[in-house]
Amino acid sequence: xxxxxxxxxxxxxxxxxxxxxxxxxxxxxxxxxxxxxxxxxxxxxxxxxxxxxxxxxxxxxxxxxxxxxxxxxxxxxxxxxxxxxxxxxxxxxxxxxxxxxxxxxxxxxxxxxxxxxxxxxxxxxxxxxxxxxxxxxxxxxxxxxxxxxxxxxxxxxxxxxxxxxxxxxxxxxxxxxxxxxxxxxxxxxxxxxxxxxxxxxxxxxxxxxxxxxxxxxxxxxxxxxxxxxxxxxxxxxxxxxxxxxxxxxxxxxxxxxxxxxxxxxxxxxxxxxxxxxxxxxxxxxxxxxxxxxxxxxxxxxxxxxxxxxxxxxxxxxxxxxxxxxxxxxxxxxxxxxxxxxxxxxxxxxxxxxxxxxxxxxxxxxxxxxxxxxxxxxxxxxxxxxxxxxxxxxxxxxxxxxxxxxxxxxxxxxxxxxxxxxxxxxxxxxxxxxxxxxxxxxxxxxxxxxxxxxxxxxxxxxxxxxxxxxxxxxxxxxxxxxxxxxxxxx
Length: 489
Prior knowledge:
Helix content: 40-55%
Order of helices and strands: HHHEHHEEEEEHEHEHEHHEHHH
Strand content: 5-15%
Largest sheet: 6 strands, mixed
Shape: flat
Structural class: alpha+beta
Number of strands: 10
Number of helices: 13
Strand order of the largest sheet: 3-2-7-6-5-4
Radius of gyration: 36 Å
């Protein structure tokens, strides 16, 4: 049976918000020491974060649900399939930088083609990810992994609570009960921070790391699981289904009801002592004063089926997932299914943007480290900084209806041409409308550049046509002259 989550989840928000025994403190911009008292906390005193113990409990419950609850597992795995099934790549204009990214992506330790799925899964489950970065002398980067359960504190900029600047780990036996302090990687110079913040960051001497969080707020220092709001309901739904299994067992059960006509209570008791349940295929002999009948329970299933669907719809609605994606088609047809899936695609697009940001930050860091090792400069200081802008390329989230999109494009082109012909639209506006429609088919174009190219092509074709027509009269004239000469002869 599944673990009871109700009381545990209530404790997530109703539990004690005590301060952790080990605190980060600020020494007026001079020093940071976890053993000093009476200093102002770096991260303020926000009540919007879960307590450290509650944060850890949330992660454990989310992991347990993903492992044991089929619906919870699918709520995590289905978005991953949409986001990553066809693969992801990092691209940059500079060929040498592209080779660096490819080397990073295919590194036998990094293996981003395989590990990216795990990273995205754990981001959804735990609500946060932390990757320590290790840089070789030649600038090549390898990523490690820090279990979110080992994070004790995320330290933020004292002047900007939404900017993490350091990670502090819990004191465990594996690290000799010493807290490690990692500096959060920022793709930019340290001068983006104030002098006080720079001094604080210098105290994080155990290395650098990437830190990413989802389902958080600007004044929260930790992320939360995608399953947090649904854990209670997932547990209730699972117990309801187990109850249905027990009900089915009862439906298969039956008893024999034996009626003794005209018997006294004493005769009934005496008969009950000697009666035996007949075995399958056996013969039972009795007179007309004894009647046997098998009685089975009549437990209706309609109400329980409706309740199960009510639970499931509530859970899926909270996760912005349509019912027909989870085997519950109901009254959905193809047309309504397409419309119901659009909010989900929008949510997946938001998560895709977050993953793209993570990968682009990591890719940019890799290029920066290579440039530092080889040229002693970073993209901002190079001659062509735009050549080092990293972009993450994802597969399409949904299959386009090509016929429908092509029809819309044809209608847009026709309407735009008519509007230009009647003087209702400028040519540039018409091309902009066409570009919007073409983008639905996956083709991006610059309307201004496209209009200039189209005008140049039109001028070239007219010039070619005019040359052809210009030669035609001369040829006709020669033929006519030859014909007159022949007639004269």
